[in-house]
Amino acid sequence: MSKAVVKFFCKNCGHVAPKWLGKCPSCEAWNSFTEEIVQKSTTSTKQLWGKSNGQKSEAIKIQEIVEGEEQRFILTDNELNRVLGGGLVSGSITLIGGEPGIGKSTLLLQLALQLKRKVLYVSGEESETQLKMRAERIGIINDECYVICETSLGNLLSYLKSDTPEILIIDSVQTMSSDLIESPPGSISQIKECTAELLRFAKESNVPVFLIGHINKDGNIAGPKVLEHMVDTVLQFEGDRHYNYRILRTLKNRFGSASEIGIYEMKGNGLREIENPSEILISEREELLSGITISCAVEGIRPILLETQALVSSAVYGTPQRTSNGFDLRRLSMLLAVLEKRCGFQLGVKDVFINIAGGMKLEDPGLDLGIVASILSSYQNIAIDSSIAFSGEIGLSGEVRAVSRIEQRISEAEKLGFKEMMISKYNKGIDSHRTNIKLIQIGKIEEAFEYLFG
Ligand code: TYD
Ligand code: MG
Predict the structure, then answer these.
(1) 171 CA to centre of ligand 2 in angstroms
(2) What domain range includes position 195?
(3) Which of 6, 282, 326, 415 yields a CA-CA distance of 20 to 30 A from 356?
């Protein structure tokens, strides 16, 4: 016997309350509660104690567990292999989140077509003809790629029993619904139930499952964080709509590093992997312009050289503007304050605009030195030689601090033909004989200024 009851869920964190609340007591978000109908079982947890369903659970010693190498499918898409930590683990469940139109369906349909394995693509959003049109655009043929347009989880699971694929793709988890739950598709209890059910399928059948999830306005995977901790891997597909570059970022990975990125370019015929991002992120320049520098950042374990641009001009209004594209605005304010207070540049009366080329958004503090150099170059209106690359973090007292993976950064700059590289003198243990690049090791911003413009 079961009866329907109403509960209130926080859209942000999944907190459950018996009545509507203005502010979530768990994550403190305002106005985040929605009403949902859920089934309530008459057996409460209290009654479970002392009861069992006949199966006995048994604990074993951790020492006695035989360590088996987890089985991985090596995918044809190297970027995806990288973000998954070296291939797709059997029986794993991966959630791919992203804004509408960013290319999630394209990425996974392309994967389904590239793999010469039996793949089932479940679409709750598009019709078979739409999928076919997309597949024609991508232009790869896989005889073993099956599609099914289905939104009922029950129907899908009974289909899977009779015909199990080697990889299952669900587009999207928000469109699936289970008959056991009263609330509509896309509601928190539905998403949780469907994910739990698919998780059970993945673990029992050892079939890897990809779930596509939409992102809501705040950038969270729609539905709550609960989904993120149920699955094994969470990937985020992001990018600027105005550019063709897309970044696939690992947010969580039970089978590998959670700080990897994969870079793609959206072309007319699907997504193309970009193996050497540095080559496309540095634009060809005929003449030297002030305010442009090349920085070497590291994302995950991969060094990327990219162009940072700054424009410093006299403020027209009382409050100077600070605008940044691809670089954290608060960090920019901090760098400007350091330049003003520690080095005496009168930037308080200037408008400052920053742009990272290619619509990239990176968080590496190693970009600081390049940003500062481009600000100073624009401020002085003197161009910086295009054969020099920068990598260093700026501290609050104007010191240039050491950055991680310096040797990889240096070798990437060398590979791309840079002659000089400005780094922190606190980066120890660099074998300068091994590289042909001239290293300029500095400890303070003033030294950089002296070297570049002195
Ligand atoms: P889509 O995969 O539908 O996005 P999502 O599933 O994340 O909502 O991507 C759609 C966008 O990509 C759409 O604007 C068209 C574009 N696109 C290409 O540029 N080239 C292609 O080959 C394909 C299939 C789509
Ligand atoms: Mg889609």
Answers:
(1) 7
(2) 72-273
(3) 415
